[in-house]
């Protein structure tokens, strides 16, 4: 069995509604389904992002944690 993990970011105008976000997720799932992939689940993956030191300390950015939503499919 093959698995596929697809990152997903809902991009809505202004604040958007939950319905709009749900529609975007549904569309992403349907797109993979037409390619023969069966939807399994969705979830979040947390990962650490390294900070940058900048140039001589100017423009330095601290590290942090970011979360990515993923959709999991199988074939």
Task: Please tell me about this protein's structure.
The mean pLDDT is 89. The chain starts with a strand and ends with a strand. It has a 3-stranded antiparallel sheet with strand order 1-3-2. Helix content is 23%, strand content 39%. The chain is built from 1 helix and 3 strands; from the N terminus they run E-H-E-E. The protein has one domain.
Keywords:
75 residues; alpha+beta; three-stranded antiparallel beta sheet; 1 helix; elongated
Give the number of helices: 1
Strand order, main sheet: write it out.
1-3-2
Name the helix and strand elements from N-terminus to C-terminus, one letter apiece. Answer: EHEE
Radius of gyration, taken over Cα atoms and rounded to an integer in Å = 17 Å
Q: Characterize the overall form.
A: elongated
Instruction: Return the domain count.
Output: 1
The biggest beta sheet is recorded as: 3 strands, antiparallel
Give the beta-strand count: 3
Percent range of helical residues: 10-25%
List the helices and strands and how they pair.
Layout (H helix, E strand, L loop, with lengths): L2 E6 L9 H17 L3 E12 L14 E11 L1
Antiparallel strand pairs: 1-3, 2-3
Give me a quick take on this structure:
The protein is built from 1 helix and 3 strands.
């Amino acid at each position: 069995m093959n698995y596929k993990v697809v990152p997903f970011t809902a991009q809505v105008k202004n604040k958007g509604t939950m319905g709009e976000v749900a529609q975007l997720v549904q569309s992403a799932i349907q797109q993979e389904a037409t390619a023969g992939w069966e939807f399994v689940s969705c979830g979040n993956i947390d990962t650490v992002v390294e900070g940058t030191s900048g140039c001589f300390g100017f423009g330095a950015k601290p590290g942090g944690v970011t979360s990515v939503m993923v959709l999991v499919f199988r074939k």
